[in-house]
Amino acid sequence: MIERKSERTKSAIRAAARQVFALVGYERATIRDIAREANIDPAMVMRYFGSKDGLFADTANFDLNLPQDLGEAPDKAGERMAAHFIAVWEQEGSGFAVLLRSASSNPVAAARIAAVLSEQLLPAVVAMVGPQEAPQRAGLIASQMLGLALSRYVLSLGPVAAMSREQIIAGIGPTLQRYLYGPLAR
Amino acid sequence: MIERKSERTKSAIRAAARQVFALVGYERATIRDIAREANIDPAMVMRYFGSKDGLFADTANFDLNLPQDLGEAPDKAGERMAAHFIAVWEQEGSGFAVLLRSASSNPVAAARIAAVLSEQLLPAVVAMVGPQEAPQRAGLIASQMLGLALSRYVLSLGPVAAMSREQIIAGIGPTLQRYLYGPLAR
DNA sequence: GTCTATAATTCGATAGAC
DNA sequence: GTCTATCGAATTATAGAC
Q1: 3-state secondary structure at position B13
Q2: Where would a tag sit more exposed on chain A, N or C end, judged by fewer CB atoms within 10 A?
Q3: Is residue B186 scored above 90 in pLDDT?
């Protein structure tokens, strides 16, 4: 089977869109920019994705893909969770950069991040610590991980961007560990 | 002395601009929106602030205003720092919401946040723990505090927004405490 | 000081030729 | 499938009357 030309064009548009959306965010990204980046005609974008919103909805996807065995060795869960987050984010084409870059100003992106929290992170935390305190614990975890991603990948704040993966994991792992299993205020 | 009309107009524009910029970010905010919110003519905005960029530069300001005595009771520094952050952010007109809402897509806003880190937070951390590990520690603190602000005030993520100030401080204080004085990876 | 009119751009989207 | 031409809307910014 020869791959159809239209599919190759579509893939090229998708890749270019991910790149441009991740770099400048939804508002500043233009269909013309994306088409130029993909070396195709701007009208092709409309043909294949219908609208700028349609292209964004197609591109701005993210699956946290948490492993099932996080609760098995509870004393190292924080570190493993931190390492997993970083690995997933740094996967090319994960779509997370697209989402986070636009979340502050684009309601669709913001809603998808909220959905990842409530549909993926929260259930995992429930499975680990039970339903009672899970929302608080998941919320604290989300705040730290979103802040890390914002500082390191979106804003590229010097001190955070300069740290190695190992330093990040060693610094943040214990935080997640405490957010999972440490004491909590009522 | 009667306050001059022009000054009152300028203040009204500033207040409206802060509100609109904080709510929808730099790109989606329009001079017309801001003028309508301030009940003045859009041309007045140009007259007093020169351009949309000029207005944003005037509005998007933030002073972390860290107290000098943070290092004096080192065992409670994390909690006091967390409480101080929250108090400053929730001050009306602090300009922090304006900055954070636009930081992901606006280079000026991003640069100002980076400046707060390097010129205000970092020196304070240096004063507490010395210059050696200060950048890492300040970077970790920034990641947690920016993530909290993003989750709670910008994205309004359910679980984070639902927590009380006390719960936030109890949850995040120990994290900052460890980022300040705990062990670090090399 | 205030407002009207409009210039100059930019962009998403459409129509239709080839 | 691909591309040209262009519409229509929105927005920043300016010129100038009052």
Answers
A1: helix
A2: N
A3: no
- Is the domain covering A5-59 a CATH 1.10.10.60 domain? yes
Query: Is a pLDDT exceeding 70 seen at residue B162?
Result: yes
**Could you tell me which CATH number the domain at A68-181 has?**
1.10.357
Residue A30 has pLDDT above 90, yes or no: yes
Q: Is the pLDDT of residue A121 over 90?
A: yes
8 Å CB contact of A142 and B151:
yes
Q: What phi and psi values does residue A130 have, to the nearest 5 degrees?
A: 85, 165
Judged by CB atoms within 8 Å, which residues 131-160 of A form the interface with B? 135-136, 138-140, 142-148, 150-152, 154-155, 157-160
Confidence check: pLDDT of B143 > 50: yes
Give the pLDDT band of residue A2 (cuts 50, 70, 90): very low
Q: Parse chain A into domains and list their residue ranges.
A: 5-59, 68-181
Phi then psi dihedrals of residue B40, to 5 deg: -135, 175
pTM reported for the whole predicted model: 0.97
